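Help wanted!
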Amino acid sequence: MTATDERPAEQAHEIGTSRTRKEDQHLITGHSTWVDNMVLPGMVHLAILRSPMAHAKITSIDASGARKYPGVVAAFTGADFADTQGNLPCAWPVTPDMVNPGAPSLAVEQVNFAGDAVAVVAARTKAEAVDALESIEVEYDPLPPVLDLEAALADGSTLVHPNTTSNKCYTWVFDSADAGSGASMDDARRDAEVTVTRRFIQQRLSPSYMEPRSTLVQPVDQGVTIWSSTQIPHILRTMLALTLGIPEHKVRAIAPDVGGGFGGKITITPEEVITTLVARRLGKPAKYTETRSETLEAAHHGRAQIQDITITAKQDGTVTGLDVHLTADLGAYLRLITPGIPLLGAFMYPGIYKFPAYHLSCDGVFTTKVPTDAYRGAGRPEATFAIERIMDELAAELKMDPLALRRKNWIAHEEFPFTTVAGLTYDTGNYEAATDKAVELVGWEDLRAEQARRREAKDPVQLGLGVSTFTEMCGIAPSRVLGSLSFGSGGWENASIRMLPTGKVEVVTGISPHGQGHETGFSQIVADRLGIPFDDIEIIHGDTQSSPKGLDTYGSRSLSVGGIAVVKAVDKVIEKARRVAAHMLEASQDDLEFEAGSFSVKGAPGSSVSLPEIAFAVFVAHDLPDGMEPSLNSEATYDPVNFSFPHGTHLCATEVDTETGRVKILKYACVDDVGTPINPLLIDGQVHGGLAQGIAQALYEEAVYDDAGNLVTGTFVDYTLPAAPDLPNFLTDRTVTPSTDNPLGVKGVGEAGTIASTPAVVNAIVDALRPLGINNIQMPCTPERVWRAIQSSGANDQGSAAASTQEHFDSTEGDAQ
Amino acid sequence: MIPAPFDYLAPESVEEVLAALAESGDDAKVLAGGQSLLPVLRLRLNAPEKIIDIGRIPALREIHEDGEYLAIGAMATHDDVLHNALVTEHALLLHKTLVEVADPQIRHRGTVGGALVHADPAGDLGAAALALDAELVIAGPGGATRTVAAKDFFVDIFETAVQDGELLTQIRIPKHTGWRAHYEKFVRVAHQWAIVAVAATVRMDGGTISEARVALTNMGSTPVRAASVERALVGKPATDDGVREAATLAAEGTSPPSDLNGDAAYRKHLAGVLTRRAVLAAAGE
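Answered by r_m:
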């Protein structure tokens, strides 16, 4: 995709143009405002002492040594804030009987994961604060760690929290027969001609945003101003007020430049609360910035589920039922939407397929590990992985081509809108078109031929092909749906337009960008709609004082919800301007047409007035229509009527070195359908980053704990985050099937790459090795795991794996290809 | 990520470094390129009282020929050595190894001497030094120097023949002019330490291997010379069949670690596969 900054000379069409990002000017020239760069007069720096133990009673804690340390202003333990810190909020009580044992920001009596905060030091410099931590004495009485999910649910397990009777937080169930959206899964099991069951493990992942989390709090009046590296300044404001009992109108929350989030900054963090408590106690600005190791050991993780999945089908490949049981590792505490993450995936297990029957149950389980919460895709990558993996397993069982099996069961393009067995109504889609294009793009037939050649030649480096035909629900979300799921918030978004006297435009959005390019994309939308040049538009966001109403950025909602709010506000401006234009042109409003930023009288080409002219006329207000308020400014709050359902086909070819177990992606092609593209360059950026993170789950990343509950992957030496050299060239393309649920026809794209790619990679690896009898490899598919799978398949001396591959291959039916 | 407080010295000659070391005993750490020491300090895995920065001594960065040897100053950066024509000509294995060290940023800061003295068993340079029969020049109290063969230099994990009060000043490599070489490094992600790696350099006589030197990275607490592989390769054709049997001897006598990237048995298996590949790649260079 070639970027261009050139506006077509004649008719301005910003939408669809690959503009480079206007925000990059300051982001890449060192003029950005990261919280950690901010300095306020009298500011103290904080350092936090964290528990070295996974599970223990605090028998004594003494911070007096730290208070004597040079430069130290104060040191506090949990006891100092026990009466004021409250509990971190959980906004999603997924069932009426869900257990929330409480989540203090600073542990008071007990620590429940290694990394739990136990004390905080405020000093004149960060170095002094860090040094003084070593002078705090804590005695712990260890408790057994609770690490294994199934053991945690067993009778007699050590309880993570002493104020509970079980480590089970909740059980949530969806049943299509009960919901009236489908048939009975019991019947489907009874009548099944083919049944395939698998267990998949979604390993723990650490959201690795480039900017570690940082918070600065300034006590102001009876409240605070809080700058935080967050995705959710508006929610932070409300939740901080509720948690600490500060009147909401006395809290101003600001998200300045934020360096990525990936879901990791959609929560109210212990560190935000602790910084606020210290700043208010001392009456001084206080700043806390985590180290990368603190990100890994104390910021929330994602995924962490056991998935037991059963698919039933007829011999001809028609799927008849899907039964899923999830065991979700919630970690030690409930963060903002911890319990709901599996539910965000619960409606997506049926994927793009026409299942008659569906059942899902999910047990949420407490363990002595870092809490889990949103990570890019949040529930939907897990769902997509499970359904796309089990479709390949069913194809293998039936000796069908995995693409043919999908074609047989997916929703055909003429069947939209389609209400799935999970009760969701997909507005549009064209799975055939995306798949056909992806097959062409990757060179599927040639790759199959190459695979056969390598099998024939007993090549030690085998080839596998993986498919993922995904959809996802994003654009969070219709408020009434969130209400039906007991979510503690609506899903609308707000925008307002301010017309300035000189014809420039300020767009205020409740969306809170942290790297996506919203300023560019929203400017393009407004430029086209208002006929105002791209560069005359400013996007204002991320400060509850200047952008007072919003629900922030997550769930691929910024464009399909926030962008539509912008459109609605723009349309109100145009309607107000139309009245003024009619007055200025002495014409009837009905006779006016608005095009390229000017109103003109139909059929009278000479008479027109431009929006900047109208804006100035309204500013001076010398001659307005009688009774008209002298303002064009407009606001809109948009509540989406439906989720957004982007889809696509991702195809992956992996080489598997049977001698070492190493997997290399030879080719990766994806065709995504995200509706009408606003800026193809931004879309490609989102897809590329998403692919990197989805591939990383398949091959590289895992947060690993040892038997004592210590995080082993505490630095990027051990948490193997891939970089550009580890990833293939991505072949990307699009089909365009506009959404019918919003006026721009757009769908979300922020999470698509992550959601789609993981199963494509693992399916490819399994495909390479299936002739050996291998039908699963646990993620991340490390060389050692792949090699061990090959060894245990019976091909156990080097060099013979390929030979065995050939033997197995020869013994299967010809149509297994 | 802030180190514990320390005193900082930046001497401008080897003599001053030695004097400072003599004064400090074991409370001092020498800072070379800092690519290993700084993370150690920042993670507070170590908290020396004094840091002696040897980055301001130009003489320690020189690379030159010395008769039958190449002499490389301990403070030459990876990048300096990687792009030095003498190194490519006379110690190709070192060049091939350096290509695989970390990334360009680290190669511009990290030094060959620093990496060798740090003696991380997963570090890349030890195997090359061992395979090339390098000699390490160590300066001691008063300026006296001694020379230690690579095989005696690596003592244990993070431990070398360099004693308190001493400084590695130069790496001397017997010229291996005309030898072919390859460093086969096995990692999961490009910036990672080697899970296992094999340094191989061979002298060819037509299609036949007439001499071979092979050493292994991360197969024990120090780099390991695969002497039995070297012996078995002599006179063998540089073909898959010719090399395969010799390569199976690679893991003999090794005791590799077990960690997140693989257990000892897997590493032993890898050593065999990677040795075969390293030798074949070297012979084919």
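OP: Thanks! One thing I noticed: The first strand of chain A starts at residue 44 and ends at 50.
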